[in-house]
Amino acid sequence: MLNWSTFLSKPAWLQRLQPFHPRLLDTLRGGYGRERLLADLGAGATVGIVALPLAMAFAIASGVKPEQGLYTAILAGFLISALGGSQVQIGGPAGAFIVIVYGIIERYGLPNLLIATMLAGVLLFAMGLLRLGGLVRYIPVSIVIGFTNGIAVLIALSQLRDLFGLHIDKMPADFFAQIHTLWAHRDSFNLYAFALGSLCLGGLFAWLRLFKPGTILPAELVEGRSARAISRVPGPIVALVTLTLASWLLHLPVETIGSRFGGIPQALPAFALPAFTWATAKQLLMPTLTIALLGAIESLLCARVADNMGDFQRHDPNQELMAQGVANFVVPLFGGIPATGTIARTVTNVRAGAVSPVAGMVHAVALLVIMLVAAPLAMNVPLAVLAGILLFVAWNMGEWHEFARLRHFKLPYRSVLLGTFFLTVVFDLTIAVEVGLLLACGFFIWRMGQLFQVEPLACTLPGVEVHSLYGTLFFGAVGKIESLPERLRGDTRTVVLEMHRLISIDTSGVDALVQLHRQLQRHGVRLIVAALNEQPRSLLSRSGFDTLLGAQGHAATLAAALAALAALAALAAVNAGPAGSNPAG
């Protein structure tokens, strides 16, 4: 009889896939009322204002038009919040992508960047679907700090052209070429641009301290209601508006968004399908992997930061990756650039009182309204001001205190962090992460090999040596087993390996034990293993090593092994007694 329940059930492989379940659904089912809606509306509007200068600045620094950054913030921001696995994360263009995007455009062109971003979206979605979100946690923190600080340095370097007002048509992507180009055009230094950028950067640092009692202003001025209201205005907006007005009123001879890009279109983005061929896709393998890897790391790190900022439900990393994948697949169809979770805007969202993904969706709508209404005003924004904002972002992005803390850590941590940092700056992120992971793996293998110990134990039985194995016997530690015969006494007839502190063993470890057994056999020495844990016992059994040793080569405990050896020695002494006695006696 046909079992319809079995026939209609999902296959086992399909059941192991991550179900598509956005966090927004849980929010709306959990009694989402007027109070929570008002909190999200206020937070979303605040983040939308903050995202305006950042989206334009990130786009310009990445080598694309400012509206492409706005399109990315609007579309990706809405999709990531609506479909993601985090309660308060804000998505959009990120500073970490600036160097990556600029390098891809420089080498492959803008159309291929769009294709690589779409392919990265497919890869991100597949990673979430296959429940690979947890793997990002296995990337060592030293690598994350190294490439984050490296990207921050590259962002700062890329903004020196606009900060100094240099007349450079096209900045190269290579680190040393950028330095050479900046030095070669030093004669075109613009004092007005430098003054605007410096005022912007200095003002942003001062804005953070301005409303803290006793720092810059007297406490009585800071604690008033009007002062508290002003303190909630984002610093980048204050800098953008005031310095743009100053530049426009004083007719300063500086480059603006309008003079370089012709302004921002006051319209919705148009749908356009990039020209796609498999031949092109094969050439974009490394850019695709780079975008996907960085997007996954940044988004999940940002989500973890958001989880710890309030009483929020822990994010679902796999659902977050699927949302990132959808966003990065859709955004290029409207001319957008890669998107991921953004820490600065997420922190702003939390501090503004957001309680659900609705705030992120409101932020996208607010940004769209601002773009449609205020697009003509953006023509007058000096690029030096945006450079100052990005320099501030780069400073906050880097974890510079980690360099000072390096003296407290050992060589492996220092080597991985500094190696990843310098490779990110000099080469690119992909090489830096690959080499960083290789270094981390190499040092990990070395440390695990050092932890494995073969310790001699005291034994009163003649001709018996006992050694205790501690740690993990794997391919990086087998040398300590291979050298054991050289350390044995000349009268040794039995070697007991006590293994109750042996956590695990791999096939290389099994092979080392097999070779040890054969080498001891050639010298007439017996090998006994005692007190095996579950994993070593299972592998030694499956490999046939227990059969090789025989029934007498195993013992449940060290005491049992020594008791059996003592009994054999006593029996041998009794059997030898009559033969050695004097018949005449």
Strand order of the largest sheet: 3-4-5-6-7
- How many strands, which pairing sense, and closed or not: the largest β-sheet? 5 strands, mixed
N- and C-termini, Cα separation:
89 Å
Task: Count helical runs.
Answer: 29
Mean pLDDT metric: 87
Helix content: 55-70%
What form results from the Cα inertia axes?
A: elongated
Count structural domains. Answer: 3
How many β-strand runs? 7
**pLDDT < 50 stretches:** 579-585
Oligomer: single chain
Binned strand content: 5-15%
Structural class comes to: alpha/beta
| Integer-rounded radius of gyration | 33 Å
Care to describe what's here?
- With 585 residues, the chain is α/β, with parallel strands linked by helices.
- The protein has three domains: 51-189 and 253-373, no CATH class; 405-449; 452-571, Transcription Regulator spoIIAA, CATH 3.30.750.24.
- It is 62% helix and 6% strand.
- The protein has 29 helices and seven strands.
- It has helices spanning 4-8, 12-15, 23-29, 34-61, 66-83, 98-108, 110-129, 141-158, 160-164, 175-184, 191-210, 219-222, 225-231, 235-250, 257-261, 278-283, 285-307, 317-330, 343-351, 358-374, 383-397, 401-404, 411-426, 429-451, 479-482, 507-522, 534-543, 545-549, 558-580; strands at 91-92, 340-341, 453-457, 464-473, 494-505, 526-530, 554-555.
- It has a five-stranded mixed β-sheet. The chain has a two-stranded antiparallel ribbon with strand order 1-2.
- Helix 26 (507-522) links the parallel strand 5 (494-505) and strand 6.
- The radius of gyration is 33 Å and the shape is elongated.
- Residues 579-585 have low confidence and may be disordered.
